[in-house]
Write a structure and sequence with these properties.
single chain, two-stranded antiparallel sheet, 8 strands, globular, disordered N terminus
């Protein structure tokens, strides 16, 4: 996107979209359909890749922003490359991993799907602002004894997964409610329980190159 095009968009109140091939961040427009059972990290990464390819951004290598527990654990922040990352509309998400987890730009207006669609949040019907991450605020895996990843994204029944609020809004005006990646655990791992918690089994995807 040129500076002239950007200036025109700002002046007119319309943000000019860049080609989808330039996108390097999105929220999945759909989940696996099996709740938090994504087929593990490999299945989640493939889901990101497939959705990106359908949107015209398949030449990049995509990874799901998900942490896993166990030995060894894997941190979401270590899976997604070095940045910078941009939304479907060309809005800056973060310049690097540290900025992503400190002063980042993820919110309801910016965090769109791979199709450039707004993901419904608090106040919408249905509310789908709960995004699967399995992560703590710093983007690392939890060290808690209880399940925080729905069995590393292989369960669709009992268990729990840590969720973030892409719209940075919740039941309270506190830091967890405003967290894009670590707000609260789900009620369970099935699709109905993710929906009842306030989500749809969606997750973040980042391009690593």
């Amino acid at each position: 996107m040129t500076i002239a095009a950007l200036s025109l968009g700002v002046a007119s109140g319309v943000y000019s979209q860049q080609p989808a091939s330039e996108m390097s961040f999105f929220i999945t427009s759909v989940g696996s359909g099996k709740g938090a059972d994504l087929g593990g990290l490999a299945g989640a990464d493939q889901h990101c890749q497939n959705l990106a390819a359908a949107a015209g951004a398949g030449k990049k290598t995509w990874r799901a922003y998900l942490s896993t527990t166990g030995s060894p654990s894997e941190n979401a922040r270590d899976r997604i490359g070095k940045g910078p990352w941009y939304s479907h509309e060309g809005r800056l998400i973060a310049r690097n991993v540290d900025e992503l987890h400190t002063v980042n730009n993820i919110n309801r207006l910016v965090a769109k799907s791979e199709k450039g669609q707004t993901v419904k949040g608090r106040g919408d019907q249905p509310n789908t602002h709960d995004i699967l991450t399995g992560s703590m605020p710093d983007g690392r895996a939890s060290t808690a004894k209880e399940d925080t990843t729905c069995g590393n994204y292989t369960k669709s029944g009992a268990g729990a997964v840590l969720l973030g609020h892409h719209d940075r809004a919740g039941l309270r005006d506190d830091e967890p409610s405003r967290s894009w990646n670590s707000s609260h655990p789900s009620r369970g791992c099935s699709q109905p329980e993710l929906v009842a918690t306030g989500g749809a089994g969606l997750f973040y995807c980042f391009a690593v190159n």
